[in-house]
Amino acid sequence: MPFLPPALRRYVGDKLASDPLLRNPDFRRYWLSSVLNSFGAQISALAVPLCSALLLHATPGQMGIIAACQALPYALFALPAGVWLDRRRKLPILLASRLLQGALLASIPLGWWLGMLSMHWLYAVTFLFATCGVLSGAAEQIFLNLLVGRQQLIEAQSKFATTDSISRLVAPGLAGLLVQWLTAPFAILFDAASFFISAWNLRKTQLAEPAPVPSDKHPLRDIASGFAFIWHEPLLRTLAWGAALWHFFLFGYSALLILLATRELGMTAGMLGAAQMLGGLGVFLSAVLVKRLNRRYGAGKTFLVGTCGTVAGFALMPAIPASLFGNPVYSAAAFGLVVFMYDCAVMLFFIPFMALRMKATPDAYTGRVISTMRFLTGVTGPAGALAAGYLGDHYGIRTGMACVAAGGIVLAAALVMSRPLRSVAPDQP
C-alpha cells in the first residue's frame, strides 16, 4: 500500500493484523470480488426492471414473468446442482459462472443497439443469468465456509453486509444517473464489467480446496438423502418451509415494486436511485445490528426479527399514497424510508438463515442441503411472481401488493410460534 499516507498505512496495517479474517489474503480477495459483484448488481437491479417498465412498456403480468424467470432455475436445477457441487471443486465453477453472467448482461445493450431487444430477450437473459446463479450462489456459500470456517460465518457475513451497504449508498444513485444519461441497457454494461473483473481477481485465490470425496451413489439417491436429512432435522425443516413461503411473497412483492414506484407514485429513475441509496443505509444498519442481536438473542430470534421486518415492508409499501400530504415528493420520501427498513430486515433474515443452515449441516451434506433449500425457494418464487402479476393485471398493482402483505403476516406469525427457531441459543463468545 505504498500509495497511502504513512498514518493511514499504519492504521490499515494494524486493522489487518488485529482481524483474523482480514489477515487471510484469500478472504480479502474473495471479499473484493463480492464487493465488485454487489456494486454491479445494484446497477442492474434498477436498470433491468426499468428496461422492462419504461423502454419495453411491460405489463404487471410481464413483470411477473421476469420475476418468475429469476426463480425458475432454482426449481429446475438446484437439486442436481447440489449433488454435482458435492462432487466438484468450487472455484472453477465460480469463475465460469461469473464470466458467463457478465456475457449475458452485456447482451442486453447489444440487443438494444441492434434494435432487437424485447421482453422475450429479457426473459431468456434473466433465466440463463439465474441458472448461473444456481451454481455460483451455492458454490460461494460452500467456498466461504472453506475459507473462514463455520464459527466465523456470522462475522464474515457481517463484513459483506457492511460493504454491501456502501455499494447500496453509491451504486443506486450512479445507476439512476446512468439510466437517465445513457438509457437503462447501456447502464447494464457497468454490471457486466464488474463480473469480468471479479472473475479475474478471484482466479488468484490460493486456497488449497480439498478434493471432493468420490461417490458411487446414483444422483437421485443423493438428492433423496438431502431431502431426508432436512426433513429429520427440526431446525432445517422449519427453515425450509419458512424460507420457501417467504420467497413466494418476496417474488410477488418484487414483481410489482418498480411498477408501483413508476406508475402509481410517478418516480423517475433518479428518484428510484436515491431511494435505493437509503436501502444501503438499511443494509449498513443491519451489519451493526446482526452481530449484537445474534450475540444477545441467538441467530434464531434474529432471523425472526428479519422476517417480521420484511413483512412490515410488504404491508407499508402499497399503503403509500400517490401524493402524500398533497406532494408527490413526500410520497417518494416515504418510499425511500420503507426501502430503508425493508433492506435492513432482509439482511437480518438472510445472514442468520445462512448461518443456521450451515450450523445444522455436516460437511458431507453441505452442497445437497444448500441446493435442496434453494430448490424449495425456487419452486415457490415463480408461483408468487406470477400470482402477483395476475393480481396486478386484473385488480391493480396496489391490490396485488396488499395480498402479498396479508400472506406475509400469516407466515410471520407462524414462524414466531415455531419452537426450533426460538430455542436456538446465542453463540458463546
Automatic annotation (TrEMBL):
One of its GO terms (molecular function) is transmembrane transporter activity. Keywords: Cell membrane, Membrane, Transmembrane, Transmembrane helix. InterPro entries: MFS (IPR011701), MFS_trans_sf (IPR036259). Gene3D superfamilies: MFS general substrate transporter like domains. Its main location: membrane. SUPFAM superfamilies: MFS general substrate transporter. Pfam families: MFS_1 (PF07690). This is MFS transporter. GO terms for cellular component: plasma membrane. Signal peptide: none annotated. The lineage of its organism: Bacteria, Pseudomonadati, Pseudomonadota, Betaproteobacteria, Burkholderiales. It is found in: Cell membrane. It is a multi-pass membrane protein. CDD domains: MFS_MefA_like. The chain crosses the membrane at residues 30-56, 63-85, 91-114, 121-139, 239-261, 267-290, 302-324, 330-351, 372-391, 397-417.
